[in-house]
Amino acid sequence: MNFEKSEFLYEGKAKRIFSVVGDSGKVWLEFKDDLTAFNAEKKGSFKDKGVINRNIASLIFNYLQQFQVPHHWVADIGEREMVVNKVNIIPLEVVVRNVLAGSTAKKFAFEEGTLLEKPLVEFFYKKDELGDPFVSDDQALMLKVASSQQQLNQLKAMALEINQYLIQLFDKASLKLVDFKLEFGVAADKKVLLADEITPDSCRLWDKETNEKMDKDRFRRGLGNIRESYQGVLERLRSVLN
Ligand code: TMP
Ligand code: ASP
Question: Cβ(156)–Cβ(94) under 8 Å?
Answer without folding.
Answer: yes
